[in-house]
Amino acid sequence: MSEARELEQLRQQIDSLDQQIQSLINQRARCAQQVAEVKHKYAQPGEPVVFYRPEREAQVLRNVMARNEGPLPNEGMARLFREIMSQCLALEEPLQVAYLGPEGTFTQQAAVKHFGHAVTCRSQISIADVFREVESGAAHYGVVPVENSTEGVVTHTHDSFFDSSLKICGEVALRIHHNLLVTTPDQKVERIYSHAQSLGQCRRWLDQHYPGIERIAVSSNAEAARRASKEEGSAAIASEAAAELYQLHTQAANIEDRPDNTTRFLIIGRQPTTPSGDDKTSVLIASRNQPGALYQVLEPFHKAGISLTRIETRPARSGTWSYVFFIDFEGHRDDASIAPVMEELRNIAVDFRWLGSYPKAVM
Ligand SMILES: O=C(O)C(=O)C[C@]1(C(=O)O)C=C[C@@H](O)C=C1
């Protein structure tokens, strides 16, 4: 048999499978439309209908990865279903998602990784503006960076929760690769722009390759790329997406000091989520300035055998508090094992806020 004949036979099989896949995807989309009708039917009078269900999406993606037999890798298969769900959700309600911009930031990439491509992503110039867009209802959800594995916490995000009623309804982790971007290859570099966190994540590389060159922190990596594209002698540390967006040349790729450099982002919204079966909860606890304050806060978790995944301390915002702890732990606030711990924390804290219970990042 000839190559052409063998290819033709296999391509006929692919065409037949594509027709079946396409028909099943549309069948699934029609189901999602019926789900939307059910959500409308049982919506509380005067309450907004909540179409996006992060707990259900996490379950769908976990199931996809659990039953995947290959040859496609689990994450690749999950991304395909992520896009199918994104399109199905758009049939129910087109989502508006605010993110820390401008275009080309890692936060934009995180928004697309979490929601898929069918949502409308709206760039904001600050983390506070992302919160404001969601609080005002101009956006359904927001995406903000919260911590990086090299540089630690994004303090603006933590501080925004002090004055906000928004809840965390999801999280997404992104491997961060930084590139040195220039307008022309091997150009003279007199200054390097980037977000402060990115400058920190590439500190050793910069010391080695550009010692003595001025490093200027700006509001985001994409803003850094925008400036480098306009200013003679300037370079930027930013992503491949920013290089494409601002037509910049990658002078050096993957310059981050740590190969496992990861940033975690939070999804913020106005509605709480229900348990997904594999969740986390975030709380804010303010305690008095007294010996053993931290021990008193941690003891209820220890007694209940609850695993903490993160604890950060922020400066108090008023004289009455000395320590404010942001704590993430395993479990959902509706879990039987968690409710009593939350009650005990409320009793011992000067101030206690439940910031949200949400599915652990799946991809
Ligand atoms: O099950 C639902 O609640 C749906 O709306 C369906 C679906 C899906 O495509 O699987 C779509 C959007 C939701 O965010 C969750 C899941």
Question: How does this model look, in words?
Answer:
This protein has 363 residues and is of the alpha/beta class. It folds into four domains: 24-37 and 51-94, Chorismate Mutase Domain, subunit A (Up-down Bundle); 97-176, Periplasmic binding protein-like II (D-Maltodextrin-Binding Protein, domain 2); 179-260, 3-Layer(aba) Sandwich (D-Maltodextrin-Binding Protein, domain 2); 272-359, Alpha-Beta Plaits. 42% of the residues lie in helices and 26% in strands. The chain is built from twelve helices and 15 strands. The strands form three sheets. Strands 1, 2, 3, 4, 5 and 11 form a six-stranded mixed beta sheet that branches. A five-stranded mixed beta sheet has the order 8-7-9-6-10. Strands 13-14-12-15 form a four-stranded antiparallel beta sheet, with helices on both faces. Helix 2 packs antiparallel against helix 3 (74-92) and helix 11 (293-304) packs antiparallel against helix 12 (339-348). The longest helix is centred in the first third of the chain and has 39 residues, at 3-41. The radius of gyration is 23 Å and the shape is globular. The two termini are 43 Å apart. The mean pLDDT is 94. Residues 32, 35, 52-53, 56-57, 60, 85, 88-89, 92 line the site of prephenic acid (PRE).
